[in-house]
Design brief:
- By secondary structure, the protein is α/β, with parallel strands linked by helices.
- It is built from 8 helices and 11 strands.
- Strands 1, 2, 3, 4, 5, 6, 7, 8, 9, 10 and 11 form an 11-stranded mixed sheet that branches.
- The N and C termini lie far apart (about 45 Å).
Amino acid sequence: MLLKLYERNNNPADLQQVIDILNDGGIIIYPTDTMYAIGCHGLKERAIERICQLKNIDPKKNNLSIICYDLSSISEYAKFDNNTFKLMKRNLPGAFTFILNGTVRLPKIFRNRKEVGIRMPDNPIIQELARLLDAPIMTTTLPYDENEDIEYCTDPELIDEKFGNIVDLVIDGGIGGIESSTIVNCTNGEAEIVRQGKGRLDEG
């Protein structure tokens, strides 16, 4: 199912439909400030397991990431020092994934790795959904084969054609990007860029 959403002034019933799907353990595809992503309610373990199977992710070996609405909600699910807080405050919302040490508030599937990726995309649609859900959204990039036409990762109608039968909803938020987020590891208190992507880190 394809649902068109806009940067502002969305029909509350459309937004509620997405929230209901997430609360029921459904999987959705949505725009971010980088590429389209696939995600679910970040505290519902069975939905997270479905996504891990879809993408062949082993949660014991790979970090999982969540989208948080604001910095105070990040502090519920991750531990960080004052310097990391200032760094995130300067750079979020933005095209970054900050790797932090997770807290016990996260489901058991996250605690295999003890670390969690934190995203706060600069995209009004997913920001609004995270605010309304009042919970983290587990997030990962779409499964993508390098031999495929890149449009299958950027065009919501083609995304729906490819993935519509394995997810509960595809959100059409316009044409998506092709760059991934910049990954910054802050688990040791120092900011280390693990992967340079779209985001340019302002270290102050």
